[in-house]
Tryptophan--tRNA ligase, mitochondrial (Mycena sanguinolenta), 347 residues
Amino acid sequence: PRTIFSGIQPTGIPHLGNYLGALSNWVKIQNENPQDRVIFSVVGWHALTLPQNPKELVASRRDMLAVLLAIGIDPKRSILFHQDANAMHTELAWILSCITPTGKLRRMTSWKARLAESRNANDESEVDESMLNAGLLTYPVLQAADILLYRATHVPVGEDQRQHLELSRDIADTFNRTFKGSSRMFPLPTALITPSKRILSLKDPSAKMSKSAADPASRILLTDSAAQIAAKVRAAVTDSITTGVTYDPSARPGTSNLLTILAACVDEDVHDVAARCAGMNHGELKAEVASAVEALVTGPRAEFERIRGDVGYLDQVAQEGAAAAYELSAQTMVQKRPLRSMSHLRK
Ligand code: ATP
């Protein structure tokens, strides 16, 4: 059987892109693979790479746990826990960081993007990394530790995380090959690339729907009301082609994005959906999209509101999840003792 691990940062209520692109797949994986061990984590330590308001972070952590329960992650079936409740993640991250060349971390596109961002923000032509915190460079090692700590074999990720997963494999392999007696310490984790359902911004269909975009109308949150959903979809950017609906992502990105959303909500092929909507105008298409999104989120939204109010239940899930995660990770850190193989048995 496989051990499947995935994590998500506690950065506010997920949007439709997060849900369709990642989280709904988690539920599928959990439900379709009863023989596998499935582990899902709210990775609070990763959130610290960016400035956080402590009070808000505490609330976001709890909200993300409530969201995962609301969409169907079942703590009886999956290990669901807060990464920052298990200090073994940081212990293993430190060990792994000592066998990871900084050059590999500097080649991560996530790091390069941060550098470019900071360069633009400071209007500097020279790339200067000296002001960026070290966590931004090393968090892919923490990610490797998150995975390897549970000796996970499979990691559901989006295409954008493929490089980080490759690094995790690489680090696992380096560890296994470098230290005597540790050849089977870490299985090499395989990416389960989530079938790509990239949802674009409702306001700028050249960009993905994202939580950090300035305009809140560019994204639909899982907790948006039916009225908010309808208003955001109605105001979505489309094009001025009025004769019918076609799926043509390069010529008609806004319209095609609405079709992508509709197809994902009703779980049908986008071309079938486009054929069905061919005779519609944009107003009719938007009405269809809004009601499909509403139908998709209405259950999870109500569950979220219910669970969020049940602090006792949330605390209990967090506690039991932490205990299960601790027990499993101790099999790696206490029984297999990676540090001992490094310090005493070095080749
Ligand atoms: P940011 O604004 O920092 O890009 P985000 O919430 O939009 O944040 P991430 O936190 O990077 O996105 O991603 C969380 C998960 O959601 C990842 O697995 C990612 O692949 C997926 N995801 C994010 N945005 C989209 C999108 N627009 N369409 C499909 N999947 C997405």
Observations:
- The domain at 3-198+311-343 is CATH 3.40.50.620 (Rossmann fold).
- The pocket of adenosine-5'-triphosphate is lined by residues 9, 17-18, 21-22, 158, 160, 197-199, 208-212 (CB under 6 Å).
- The CA atoms of residues 232 and 295 lie 15 Å apart.
- The beta strands are 3-8, 37-42, 79-82, 154-157, 190-193.
